Amino acid sequence: MNDVKISVGGAIENEAARRFVDAWHRAEHGETFHERHLAFESWDALARTLTAKRMELLRYVRRHKVTSVRFLAKALGRDYRNVHADVQALTAAGLLEATDSGIQASYDAIETKIAI
After folding, report:
1. Domain boundaries defined on the chain
2. Whose CA is closest to 84, among 76, 72, 92?
3. DSSP-assigned letters across all residues of 38-91
4. Which is deepest, 41, 51, 52, 110, by most CB within 10 Å?
5. Which CATH architecture has domain 3-114?
6. For 38-47, what is each residue's pLDDT tens digit?
């Protein structure tokens, strides 16, 4: 299963440094791997990015071939401008990939770690 790991709050820099060292050691041993880690400064920042409508959009994109924002807006029964803004926000956050061939979410789950 291909996952996206999200960290919220806490010592983001320390965790990133730990992941870098771990990746370095794994690469030295010839291990090939692909991991996607995203970090949000706070719960509020994550909640602003992953709204209910955006989660619905992510689920749809994960399960269907999406060729354009217009197609996605029609499929979701939503306004084009709002869907376009959502796609831009999710792409900027690293949760969507927009290419010439369409829009993709190339992971199966989002794993979230929230520091308290």
Report:
1. 3-114
2. 72
3. EEESSHHHHHHHS-HHHHHHHHHHHHS-B--HHHHHHHHT--HHHHHHHHHHHH
4. 110
5. Orthogonal Bundle (1.10)
6. 888 888 989 9
